Amino acid sequence: MLGIRFYPHSAAYFFNESIAEFNDEIVSAADLFGASLKNLHEKLLDTPGLDIRIALVEEYLCSRLLISEKRHDKIKFIGDIVNNLKSDYNREIIAVSVRNNISTRYLNMLFSQYTGLPPKLFCKINRFQHSLNLVNANDQKLTDVAYDAGYFDQSHFIREFKLFTGITPNSFAAQASPINQFLAGN
Description:
This protein is mainly alpha-helical. Helices cover 65% and strands 0% of the residues. The protein has helices spanning 29-33, 35-46, 50-65, 72-87, 93-99, 104-115, 119-137, 142-148, 154-165, 169-174, 178-185.
């Protein structure tokens, strides 16, 4: 099995479609990329070494970059915003749009088009991911985790944690399983 993992904004380099169109959908890559992907798949099946397979995939993806050449500046722009938002979970979207001299509506549209998510939800997911790492470390009280992760209070933290996981942070920590360790690491 060989998988490819993209940064939140970087998948947009390889698709003509808005990334938001793939939300809540299961789409065959063969349907999107057609014969070129089928050819790559056949080559991968016939290639014995992992290094050569990775080189084939890299070559294929580099050829796909030409498709999005006109959008590279916008994708890079959103990538810079993504990287800034990853470090500041509570950054106001209005402040981001003002700092970048664009309207919040345009920011939302670009962000959704190139990441598949509105910026506010992206920030919420990043904050949750950070809190998951802190809970998994299991060396802080929940109140401290809540504040360190940027939540307003413990109640807000617990409510959002349950929204994403279906269980409370205490229950999650009590179930410290290998899958939880894996989830927290990503």
